[in-house]
Design goal:
Layout: E1 5-6, H1 10-18, H2 28-51, H3 53-56, H4 68-83, H5 101-120, H6 122-125, H7 137-151, E2 159-160
Antiparallel strand pairs: 1-2
Helix pairs in contact: 1-2, 2-4, 2-5, 2-7, 4-5, 5-7
Length: 169
């Protein structure tokens, strides 16, 4: 994963401010902070996939043990390291850490979508005899974003600072 990768969630911010979710109307500051945290969570998931890429692509090993549960544990650790937020304690997060109500609602949805992506990829991940499996951070990110967006009226989009495709600018 390159250091130049940025997750643009402008569409997320616009959707959150224009369309009320279950929590009602959302202030712009809350929407922006929620978008930032969603981006950090998606980026954390991409980092977990990146760190496990050699295992995922190991052609000699069948059952790799890279389960949705292991992925979620590593995802939570990575997110906590990047944000200081413990996802297991979202409902009762300390007052010292301000987490918008909308983020408390949406972050678990993205975690669940991510787990489902890893669950659905088990056949590919555990395939013996095949090295590169095309289950890379970008693939995970696209699939997790799509699954997340089916559950909530929020769209996540991954872009690079310098996109290869000019249409993505």
């Amino acid at each position: 994963m390159t250091g130049h990768m940025v997750f643009t969630l402008l569409a997320t911010v616009l959707l959150m401010t224009a369309q009320p979710l279950t929590v009602g109307a959302v202030e712009r500051a809350e929407a922006e902070e929620t978008a930032r945290l969603l981006a950090k969570l998606l980026e954390s998931g991409r980092m977990v996939i990146d760190r496990n890429q050699a295992l995922i692509d190991d052609p000699h090993k069948g059952e790799k043990g890279f389960t949705p549960e292991l992925f979620e544990e590593q995802l939570r650790q990575e997110f906590r390291m990047r944000t200081g937020i413990d996802l297991t304690a979202l409902p009762k997060a300390p007052v010292s850490i301000t987490i918008p109500p909308l983020a408390k609602e949406l972050l678990p949805v993205l975690v669940q979508a991510s787990r489902e992506v890893i669950r659905d990829a088990q056949v590919v991940i555990n395939q013996r005899g095949l090295g590169y499996k095309n289950f890379i951070p970008a693939t995970y990110g696209s699939q997790a974003s799509a699954r997340f967006s089916k559950s909530v009226p929020v769209r996540l989009k991954q872009t690079a600072i310098e996109p290869r495709n000019p249409k993505n600018e």
